[in-house]
Amino acid sequence: MSAEATNPEARPEARPELRRRGRTRLDLRRLGRAALLGPTSRDRLPDAIGHVAEAHRAHHPDADLSLLRRAYVLAESSHRGQMRKSGEPYITHPLAVTLILAELGAETTTLTASLLHDTVEDTEVTLDQVRAEFGDEVAFIVDGVTKVEKIDYGAAAEPETFRKMLVATGNDVRVMSIKLADRLHNMRTLGVMRPEKQARIAKVTRDVLIPLAERLGVQALKTELEDLVFAILHPEEYEHTRALIAAHAGESDPLPAIADSVRGVLREAGIAAEVVVRPRHFVSVHRISRTRGELRGSDFGRVLVLVGENADCYAVLGELHTCFTPVVSEFKDFVAAPKFNLYQSLHTAVATPEGYVAEVIVRTRQMHRVAEAGVVALGNPYATAPADPGSPADPADCDEERVDPTRPGWLSRLLDWQQSAPDPDTFWSVLRAELAQDREITVFRADGGAPGTISLPAGASCIDAAYAQYGEAAHGCIGARVNGRLTSLSSRLSDGDTVQLLLAQDASSGPAADWLEHAKTPAARIAIGSWLQAHPDSANPTTTPARAPLSVVGARGGGGNAVVDLPDATVRLAGCCTPVPPDAVAGFVVRGGAVTVHRIHCASVAQMRALGRTSVAVHWRATADCRVTLLAESFGRPHLLADLTEAIAREGVEVVSATVEPPVEQRVRHTYTLQLPDATGLPALMRAMRDVPGVYDVRRA
User: Fold this and answer.
1) How many helices (H) and strands (E) does the chain have?
2) What percent of the chain has a predicted confidence (pLDDT) above 70?
3) Among 292, 376, 605, 654, which lies 20 to 30 A Cα-Cα from 217?
4) Has residue 47 got a pLDDT over 70?
């Protein structure tokens, strides 16, 4: 998703869309010691919490601020005497983090935990003290963001800290909200660090924190983190982008005039809407410049239209496409189909008479809040009943595992596979690979089991679906049906596919080594790797020459019961459709004067007619016997051919020929040509063959 925050040089005071309740939004990017300390001295901060209180009341007018004040007193007293490397009192850091979250609309419990988030880690305050003073919920969040002891974990401390934090996030997403705000403030003040340490922290931010911010929908934090990382890791490209933006600032900007035209169109249509220009941030401008080459004035920002209701979004879209020339390829509907990180908006682009192309985003004000703040805008998704505004949830609720109805599929998958990660290095590398997947698909289970859907990363295969549905039992998966059609396990899935997974009955079955080439999810890759490591002989099977199909052939007939109106002609039943009485059939003369008989709906009939083959009338003899070819697909197991042949014999059917192909992915395909004494017995024969253990499909050739 393209980010939409302003660039670091923009002045929020000049942007009317950021005004709320008559108050100008505080500039988060310029928050510093002066904003926190005011005119007072460094060792006295009596009014510092006022900035947080003001921002919090803007979103929650009835919030009880007493909890925040008590948290501030504990944080300030416990951090007293500690200094940051920048020379500021340490208390400025939890205050800045809390102010970031307050500006995003976080509720009181989150802000309380944010003020205290470093007390257990860096001071003498214990988690029990926090729990006794502020309740279990605040203590849970504080514990979730507290780093593990490096003395205990050594080099594994950082990955284990993230593992601990992500597990806590699975129970309460507010843990990660605080971590993201914490990293943002640390990135803002990273200039006091050595260049190599700046680069190391920036890389972790790029690989882990920014993808997490994207997945949790916290775009306001994600976009600034992207710019800060961009400046550290790519200084030359950053300076080039800065120069582009600076050069644009001195030119005529067409976007305000386009926004005025949009306002006029919507005013005439009677649609109440707020129309503003959103400048692109640095990384967004850099991406656009790489794809479009030379930038025009309208490329440095987008027009944002805010309305009241969902229906108004489509009304605005209709007016825009009526009064301007739409760029059809740029239209995306994330209102009807939200992104996996809760994002909703309509995206389009319109061309003006002057030749400019302007991107336009249309959303409701609630969508805008969620687009900016993501999960932070949800408040407390774990509250079981409405509580007093701004008050924390009942601590008793924290004793049970919390179920977040908004928990996305990627987080559930992450919580599952991290339990199987054998060591911190594997967890760390797999986590980065997992977070690099930026799109998701949803597939449906054909068996109707719960849950009815499976969330997977884009590009996932049937192997991934098998492990997501069955866990380690997927070791015995030998095939799948996708949208009703049999396919290999390596087949990639698309959004909306229906998947039926086929498991072998042999409990000793295991995955093939090449499954790792097609598995995309960490859960599948870790499970397959563990099995192969435990069964080294299976991972490197002895190479054997390919076997030819096994065939059992009896006397072959010709036209069976088919009679054609062509004396002395040789009659053949077509192998492509294997007609039997009482199928409607058609005959065609082929080379050598023979007549081939097809079912009337066979695709070959149209081809014969197109080739100008002579059509011959065909009818069935009065006798009821017939010949038919059946395909049987099954799991591989001993004695299967004998069991199938016995089942056929019990139905009184003669086997004319039988072919068994070599197993592929533990699946075996049988082809039988059979002579039936009565064509009406064909359905019963096919049912009897399907009832043989291991057989999962029988159909006519």
Assistant:
1) 28, 24
2) 82
3) 292
4) no
Instruction: Decide: helix, strand or coil at residue 21.
Output: coil
pTM, 2 dp: 0.68
**Other CB atoms within 10 Å distance of the CB of residue 39:** 6
Give the alpha-carbon dihedral of 223, 225, 231, 232, to 10 degrees.
Answer: -160
Tell the burial category of 446 from Cβ atoms under 10 Å away from its Cβ (0-12, 13-18, 19+): middle
Q: Which residues are catalytic?
A: 121-122
- At residue 108's C-alpha, the angle toward residues 104 and 113, to 5°, is 95
Where is average pLDDT lowest: 321-330, 511-520, 560-569, 640-649? Answer: 560-569
The Cα–Cα gap between 524 and 474 comes to 9
What is the distance between the alpha carbons of residues 99 and 178, in angstroms, rounded to a whole number?
11
User: SS3 of 513, please?
Assistant: coil
Rounded Cα distance between 653 and 678, Å, is 9
Between the CA atoms of 120, 125, 131 and 136, what dihedral angle is there, to the nearest 10 degrees? -10
DSSP alpha helix (H) spans, 508-650: 515-518, 522-534, 536-539, 603-610, 640-650
Question: How crowded is residue 270: how many other Cβ atoms within 10 Å of its Cβ?
Answer: 8
Mean pLDDT for the stretch of residues 375-396? 52
Judged against a pLDDT cut of 50, whether residue 18 lies above it is answered with no
Peptide bond into 211 cis (omega under 30): no
pLDDT tens, position by position, 463-496: 999 988 888 888 888 778 888 887 778 889 988 8
Judge if the upstream peptide bond of residue 582 is cis by omega within 30 degrees of 0.
yes
Q: What is the DSSP string of 617-661?
A: -EEE-SS--EEEEEEEEEE--TTHHHHHHHHHHHTT-EEEEEEEP
Token digits for 124?
């003498």
Q: How far apart are CA 699 and CA 701, in angstroms?
A: 6
Decide if 557 contacts 657 (C-beta within 8 A).
no
Mean residue pLDDT across the chain: 79
Reduced to 3 states, what is the DSSP secondary structure of residue 570?
Answer: coil
Burial of 580 (C-beta count, 10 Å sphere; 0-12/13-18/19+): buried
In angstroms, the CA 442 to CA 450 distance is: 14
Q: Is the pLDDT of residue 72 over 60?
A: yes
Q: Output the six-digit token pair for 201.
A: 């922290």
